[in-house]
Each structure stands twice: as C-alpha cells, then as structure tokens.
Design goal:
With 282 residues, the chain is an alpha/beta fold. Helices cover 49% and strands 13% of the residues. The chain is built from twelve helices and nine strands. The chain has a nine-stranded parallel beta sheet with strand order 5-4-3-2-1-9-8-7-6. The radius of gyration is 17 Å and the shape is globular.
Length: 282
C-alpha cells in the first residue's frame, strides 16, 4: 500500500480531509462528499466510478465497507452493498479503493459499521487505512463513549474520526460527540435510513446551528441523508460546511447499462451537486 504506515497526515500537518475542507471554505463554498460501497458493482468498476466522482467535483469520497446487516441504510444503498458482497468484496478491497481515491486527488474516508472493523482488528485497521492514504473513518453505529479503542488507534495513526449527530440528539449528546470528532461531524438531517428524498428535512439547518454551538470551535459540520439534486445541495451549502450524497450515486450505477454509462452518469451527478455546493454560498 502507498503512504506512511504510521500516519495519515499531509505535508502541511493536517489530514487530506482537513485540507480539502479548509480549501472549500477558503474558496467560499461547501465541500462535496460522495459515497460508494467498495466493490460495487465489482472491484475494478468501483475504482472507475470513484475516479469519475472525483473528476466530477467530489472533494471527499466515503468508501463504504459492505456489511450484511446495514441497519441504517435505505434500499438503494443496501442493493449496492449486496452487489458488492456478492462480488466477494473484502476489507483489502476497500483499502484498494481508498488508495484509488487518494491517487485521484480527493480525501478518502471509510464508512463502516463497527462490527467489521472490530473483526478486522482496530489497531490493524487504523494502520492499514493510514498506509492506504485514507484520512479516517465514519462509524455510524459507534457511540463516542464506547469508542475508546478506536480513539486510541486513530490518534496513533493520525486519522480523523467522524461520528454522527441527529435532530433527536440532546445538547449533552452533541457536546460529547463533537468533542470526540476530528475532521468533521456528520449531521444526519433526519431520523431514518439513507435514501434520496424530494426535499431536505426542515430539521437540518437547526441541527447544524446546535452542533456548532456544542462544538465551540471551527469543527466543520457536514450534512447528509436525502440530498439528491443540485438545488438541495445549494440549500444545504447555505448553512453547512459540506454536502454529503450517497444513494444518488449508487442509483446511477444501478440504473446504468454498462460501466461507461455508469461513470458518465456519476460524473454528471457530481458536477450538478458541486455546482449546487458553490451556488449555495454566493
């Protein structure tokens, strides 16, 4: 694998994720964060798709670690993950896609439920992720107070750690979560599973405001769940530091007749969302 096995830091001292978010802020726009399961629809194709996402304007790519019990994922991402599992995707393949994202010039995060990381070995996962050029991981079902092993491993290898907050989070929970985050905090715009929606939840903006108050620092707040159009991206970019989209990318791959059509559709979708992320800050 590429990179330094002991750290995920950029030459400037921060992770690639921190650098990309800072760059977006300096350019007066929100960052665009896309998601795709590794190995969907197969390993080599998923690498081509994430390259198209980056070429289309994704600053960050969440590389999904496919899991057989994705309790927080909606039907589109579940279908994509099932395809990846059927193709035999393993953690080593996830790290290969992380490498491809980094090589394409974007920041790479792994998005994973905790059980697969625990089975892989937390310290080993952190070391291998840093070696692959990854910035860190998003762990949607891991609570910060139960994350001691991950906090220690991510510190040891200079990795970012992203935890989730939701509209139901209490002020105490927001403070606990933001204190544990590094890179950004993931604000889930609504209660429920992932998937495209006709409009962004009305709770999203208030959640961002509350999360920033709890953080009391410059920790970026990025919003996901349900963003599927450029107009929605622009709306979210008006108050958040990053726009996160996943199901829309997966659906375009599912709908495509072949890999060429998939990369074209994904690239065009990334361009649409990136334009929205810029327009929302004008």
């Amino acid at each position: 694998m590429n990179g330094d096995a002991s750290t995920a830091q950029d030459a400037g001292g921060g992770t690639p994720l921190q650098s990309r978010l800072a760059r977006a802020r300096s350019e007066g726009r929100a960052a665009l964060i896309g998601y795709l399961p590794a190995g969907f629809p197969d390993l080599s194709s998923s690498i081509e798709v994430v390259r198209a996402m980056v070429a289309g304007g994704c600053d960050v790519v969440e590389v999904g670690l496919p899991y057989s019990d994705p309790t927080m994922d909606g039907p589109t991402i579940q279908r994509a993950a099932d395809r990846a599992l059927a193709a035999g995707t393993a953690p080593a393949d996830v790290l290969r896609v992380v490498e491809a994202v980094a090589e394409a010039g974007a920041a790479a995060l792994v998005m994973s439920y905790w059980n697969p990381i625990d089975r892989y070995g937390t310290a080993r996962f952190a070391a291998d992720l840093a070696s692959a050029g990854g910035s860190g991981a998003i762990t949607p079902d891991l609570l910060p107070e139960e994350a001691g092993e991950w906090l220690e491993a991510s510190d040891a290898h200079g990795l970012d750690r992203v935890f989730l907050v939701a509209p139901s989070s209490t002020d105490e929970r927001l403070k606990l979560t933001t204190d544990a985050c590094r890179g950004f905090v993931y604000a889930a715009s609504l209660m429920g599973v992932t998937g495209t929606r006709a409009q962004v939840a009305s709770t999203a903006e208030q959640l961002v405001v509350r999360t920033r108050q709890a953080a009391g620092s410059g920790l970026p707040v990025c919003v996901g769940l349900g963003i599927s159009t450029g107009e929605q991206a622009a709306e979210v970019a008006g108050y958040a530091d990053g726009v996160i989209a996943g199901a829309g990318f997966c659906q375009r791959v599912l709908d495509a007749a072949d890999l060429g059509a998939a990369t074209a559709a994904v690239g065009a979708f990334a361009e649409e969302l990136a334009e929205g992320a810029r327009a929302g800050r004008r």
